[in-house]
What we know:
The chain has 66 residues and is mainly alpha-helical.
Amino acid sequence: MNKIQADIEAEKIFDNVAKTKEEIMKKAKEDGIWKMGLDSNNDLFKKVDDEAKEKLKKLASMIDEE
């Protein structure tokens, strides 16, 4: 996989993370567990962030150096 292909795949990962975070935020607000403040809700996103980091790390290791 070259860098351009990896960038395309990374963009898909980031888009998926953004969509998932929006869904989490919407559900948290509906459930009344959304907290005001910049860092108050980080625990809600930890799993999706950790999964994205692993996917990106794996993707980076697949890039062929040319």
